[in-house]
Cytochrome c oxidase assembly protein CtaG
Amino acid sequence: MTEETKQDVVEERQWIQHHNFLMLKKLLVIAVVMFGFGYALIPIYKQICEITGVNILTPKDISADAVVNSQVDKSRLVTVEFDANTQGPWRFRPTVSSLQVHPGEMAQVIYEVVNKQSYKMDAQAIPSYAPQQAAPFFKKMECFCFKQQTLEANEARQMPVSFFIDPALPKEVKTITLSYTFFEVGLKAETKPGT
């Protein structure tokens, strides 16, 4: 091997090492950006949900004192439809598909849930409303969605939702759909059989 060939081989190795180092730097930047994006997803998701009015975990909507002072609008009826979706091994449904209520009138609906697994599970219900403009006018006094639910193996439970429709609801809104998605949270592998 000549001196010139040796020099070419050394330069080629240096060129390869330089490009490998550049590639490593690019990959590290990509990894850091991906980690940052994953970390930022939770607040981004919450903001999107607040803006769109979908799947919002809300605290208690109103106090009992506020209901006492509300006026019932007997001149109109609003149909409230109830829907249930599940993400997990549940049977989940409302006991009635709809109710007609006067704005300002207290009403209650019961949702039934059954844990069809042979182990205890924690779950959370997330409400959403249609049309979106009705969400601020749907006031829940009592709701299983205010906190996580723990269901024992094969447990069945009836869970109430007490609510009223604010009389300030725009008159063109005649139907509101209250939909819940019920899903498992805090997966605990140690509680499941065979683990």
In short: The helical segments are 3-52, 64-68. Strands lie at 78-87, 90-94, 98-101, 107-115, 121-130, 138-143, 149-151, 156-165, 175-185. The radius of gyration is 28 Å.
